[in-house]
């Protein structure tokens, strides 16, 4: 695979770049991070791979839940320091059981749940 496009990207001091993920309808699903390895793996396989900052390891979205994300489009921002992927989302994107990680809206001083839970995390993820 030709990797010349990597020269346009600005990874942070830890080798990571933020990734905004939205579905084909434009619903923002999540924000995550990639390193060069997970970006190249994503483009090679067509499935979204990320780098977990808390677990300090790479992960394939859906590897435990079955809620895979399939790449449809890939964008870079004007500064080269953020990515946008449009995906076909299978199931929910949020590990708490919602379709999108952005299921709470701030309104009149409070957060209200605007999304609907579509799966139970306790039944999907191994403890």
How is this fold's topology laid out?
Blueprint: E1 17-23, E2 28-34, H1 36-45, E3 49-52, E4 57-60, E5 69-76, E6 83-89, E7 104-107, E8 110-113, H2 121-124
Parallel strand pairs: 1-6
Antiparallel strand pairs: 1-2, 3-4, 5-6, 7-8
What does this structure look like?
With 127 residues, this protein is mainly β. It has one domain: Ubiquitin-like (UB roll), CATH 3.10.20.810. Helix content is 11%, strand content 35%. The chain is built from two helices and eight strands. The strands form three sheets. A four-stranded mixed beta sheet has the order 2-1-6-5, covered by helices on one side. Strands 3-4 form a two-stranded antiparallel sheet. Strands 7-8 form a two-stranded antiparallel ribbon. A hairpin with a 4-residue loop joins β3 and β4. It is globular and about 45 Å long. The termini are far apart. The model has no long low-confidence stretch (mean pLDDT 95).
What does this entry show, briefly?
By secondary structure, the protein is mostly beta strands. The protein has helices at residues 36-45, 121-124, and strands at 17-23, 28-34, 49-52, 57-60, 69-76, 83-89, 104-107, 110-113. Helices cover 11% and strands 35% of the residues.
What are the key terms here?
8 strands; 127 residues; single chain; mainly beta; Ubiquitin-like (UB roll)
What is the makeup of the main sheet? 4 strands, mixed
Helix content: 10-25%
**Could you give the count of β-strands?**
8
CATH architectural designation: Roll
Number of domains: 1
Structural category: mainly beta
Low-confidence stretches: none
Average pLDDT rating:
95
- Under CATH at level 1, the class stands as Alpha Beta
- In DSSP terms, counting alpha (H) and pi (I) runs of 4 or more, how many helices? 2
Name the CATH superfamily classification. Phosphoribosyl-AMP cyclohydrolase
Strand fraction band? Answer: 35-45%
* Major sheet strand order: 2-1-6-5
Distance between the amino and carboxyl termini: 37 Å
How large is the radius of gyration? 15 Å
């Amino acid at each position: 695979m030709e990797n010349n496009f990597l020269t346009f990207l600005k990874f942070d001091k830890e080798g990571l770049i933020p990734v905004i993920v939205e579905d084909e309808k434009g619903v923002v699903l999540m924000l995550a991070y990639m390193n060069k390895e997970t970006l190249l793996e994503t483009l090679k396989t067509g499935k979204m791979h990320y780098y977990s900052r808390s677990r300090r390891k790479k992960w394939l979205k859906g590897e435990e839940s079955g809620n895979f994300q399939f790449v449809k489009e890939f964008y870079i921002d004007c500064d080269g320091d953020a990515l946008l992927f449009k995906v076909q989302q299978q199931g929910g994107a949020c590990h708490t059981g919602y379709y999108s990680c952005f299921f709470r809206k701030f309104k009149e001083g409070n957060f209200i749940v605007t999304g609907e839970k579509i799966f139970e995390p306790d039944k999907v993820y191994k403890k």
